[in-house]
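User: I need a structural model of EamA domain-containing protein from Triangularia setosa for a docking pre-check later this week. Nothing fancy, just the predicted structure tokens so I can convert them on my end. Input:
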Amino acid sequence: MRSTKTARSGEQPLLSSYNSSDDEERGRRTLRGGNRRGSPLPPTSTSASQTPTYSHFAASDLTTSRPTLSRRSTNQLRSRSPTSARLEAKRKYKYAAFFLVTSLVSFVVQTELASYIQHDLGWNKAYAMLYLTHGSWVFLWPLQLLFLRLQRREQSWNQFWNNHKQILRKTAQMVERQEARIPRGMGANRSPWPYLARTTAVVTTALTIAGSSWYVAVSMTTPSDLTAIYNCSAFFAYAFSIPLLKERLRLDKMLAVFVAIIGVLVVAYGGGSASDEAGQAGPATRFAGNIVIGIGSVLYGLYEVLYKRYACPPDGTSANRSMMFANTFGSLIGVFTVLVLWIPIPVLHVLGWETFEMPTGETASLLLISVFANMVFSGSFLVLISLTSPVLSSVAALLTIFMVAIVDWFLTGRPLEAPAILGGLLIITAFGMLSWSTWKEMNEEQRKGPVDLSSDSGDED
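Assistant: Understood. Predicted structure tokens for EamA domain-containing protein:
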């Protein structure tokens, strides 16, 4: 994130740089060469009393000519230095670590509550629960807007709102073009919202089918098969990343994904319960269930990669801008879910496959908490993918298998079996391997241009 210069480089609160300073703006004007002959940009005023405006440009713009730079202008160029690149990667990794922990905790809360609601309270409405949880994502952007507004209370509402709209519009254009800078006169005024509407429809459909497959297959196959096959989405995320994200085949990543899947298989089948579960479903039914959950696993891996490829800002974008847009796109998924995906509910009711029934009492209260936990998890997970990669996020999500087992141990008093511990350690090892690989990649990407130097507080066209 290229934000206002602080006393200690690399230290700033989460989403705090919602405005740029006068010093940075004067530095930018120097870089623009407002009084230099032959500058492609019009002269700008440097009056000290002028309210600072907000600009968004890439470091690659500075390589076409070499004007005489002031000290402040030189500070802007430091974004291409190895030291600055390392600081930016470190900042992104800190944010990613925060949202990783948040997603893990919220997922465990959601899982335990959903299990209790379905099995103990008897409200077993799979698609209705999926609709409510995914529909709750619509609140991600309003909550983010409230948080940002509380940070910028000194601004008038009109100024704050106009700046926020400029950021989202500019970021959406960056997402559509997959460029960290939108040159003037090259579609900068084109509305990005039709593109986002199409992308939201495709990504949400893949997500909904993948999520629904779990609920369809849960009564057809064994819990071990369900867990093992569905969590192979980490492999498919890596497989789809190669053609869609142009990722290189890396031995360390392949090994980490392999170790993670082995860990899942050990947890799923190592407890000796697979043979007991096998008799619960006939071979044909179990095979059909495995096919269904296999399709869901492929689609979930595809959903993660499609989101990263078509709905995330490109490499070189600041961390604040990436996080802000991740929550905004999450709200778009929520809007599509609420407005479109209610249609199967009456269809399922008429066919008798899932009778609609409003939750009441304790069920309604716990369902509300579960839905909120899912919203927190989903928002954090979208940010995590945006800041890192679908592969790392998928393997990180596998950590929840071990965490849920630990929580069950405390809740039920049933100690962890050796396979659960071994599988959990393998997943943790795989996550550590992927984290190190991703850290190296982030450092490499931050040393490349173009780099987003904007303060994430606004833009000027």
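Before docking, keep this in mind: DSSP finds 17 helices and no strands in the chain.
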